[in-house]
Amino acid sequence: MYGVGVGPGDPKMMTILAKEILESASILLAPTISMESSGRAEEVVRAILPNREIERIVFQMTRGTSGQTLRESSAKAAARELFERCAPDEDVAFVTLGDPSLYSTFYPLARAVSQLDNGVEISMVPGIPAFTYLACRVNMDLLDNSERLYVVAVVQDEDLDRLCDLLADRQATVVIYKCGRRFGKVREALAKTDRLSQALVGEQLGTQIERIVEASLVSEDYLSYFATVISPAIRSDFG
Amino acid sequence: MYGVGVGPGDPKMMTILAKEILESASILLAPTISMESSGRAEEVVRAILPNREIERIVFQMTRGTSGQTLRESSAKAAARELFERCAPDEDVAFVTLGDPSLYSTFYPLARAVSQLDNGVEISMVPGIPAFTYLACRVNMDLLDNSERLYVVAVVQDEDLDRLCDLLADRQATVVIYKCGRRFGKVREALAKTDRLSQALVGEQLGTQIERIVEASLVSEDYLSYFATVISPAIRSDFG
């Protein structure tokens, strides 16, 4: 079973290997929150392989303290469904946004599949992560010399305290994922640490409705789930 | 001018967009440490586009306290060379390993080019970073729920102190770049923070001579420049 990262949303961000696997797999599965609507990963595949048959598998993507449990049980249900639908020896590819090793929907599924049948061979195919895509879109250097990069998720209020600690490291670029529902608090944290004016927000990256904007100009307190925030390291020599 | 990330070394890790740009650019430049030998980025392009003409541009990649200055002056020299060689309006693509926003050779060059002629349009094309490639190769989940990811470089001894602080955060996955010459010290830091047994080392990723091995089994104190180390977050529920 392949877990194929398709990148943030722009179909051309798919790797050559990812495309080959999506073409050759006998069954292609895409996660969705309901059978009636397509997920974003499915949209990416459709744009590059319009005639490919794609099956949907319902997957609860909610995270957080209680979300984690929900996600685990959802992954287990999806794994059982996968075993019912696919004959053994079938070449199954499961598509996931971004990269399968970074906050992906694939990993909990792969774990649940291994628990049901540990003979299934799992293979993860890397994808362009949303944060490097966003950095490249605006010609931003995330890391140089001995600078550091922190990638954090803000899924609960406790994560905000740690975020402030990390933002205090001026030589670090901080990438914030999953902060959509707490964007107002994140903006406060950026302001408190003097980082608001340089921070960026990206939403719907790689799609037709992509929005990339300075964090200081975003007045909403809630953003979409897939919003990505970058607060660049503070540099004296260039901007 | 395009800065095209070609991924860690496996030609199939190139994105569809990267391949298109490498095919269509009128001049393709690859960095090398000497005109007589090919750099790794050039090798990746050759594997996927064997008939493509690739020009070499000498680039000093050494970093660190003094390396930084050397790198800046090397970037300036490369930028001047680029202006001498390329006619204006030429469609130039410069290839770089991994992703252009992460410790890449492209960024200092782009900055130097902008300083010589700020009318040059710069465009960065994302590439698969070495660390997510390494994670995917071993089916490792780098980040889940509210875990954190720290990407750090160890170019000087002072970086080792901070590394220990970061390793102390048990819910963080720590990726270590550029620690080749100080691997012995990094191994000590991993051992001191009880993380040595789970840490991984990857070298020559994506190439024929790729080596992926547990850090505890690596006895050398010096590794190659492009070695990547991953110390996964400490989890209780699964391995």
TrEMBL record, chains A, B:
Its EC number is 2.1.1.151. Pathway: Cofactor biosynthesis; adenosylcobalamin biosynthesis. Residues 2-217 form the Tetrapyrrole methylase domain. One of its GO terms (molecular function) is cobalt-factor II C20-methyltransferase activity. It is an enzyme of class 2 (transferase). Pfam families: TP_methylase. GO terms for biological process: cobalamin biosynthetic process; methylation. InterPro entries: 4pyrrol_Mease, 4pyrrol_Methylase_sf, 4pyrrole_Mease_sub1, 4pyrrole_Mease_sub2, CobI/CbiL, CobI/CbiL/CobIJ_dom. Keywords: Cobalamin biosynthesis, Methyltransferase, S-adenosyl-L-methionine, Transferase. NCBIfam families: cobI_cbiL. Belongs to the precorrin methyltransferase family. This is Cobalt-precorrin-2 C(20)-methyltransferase. The lineage of its organism: Bacteria, Bacillati, Actinomycetota, Acidimicrobiia, Acidimicrobiales. The gene is cbiL.
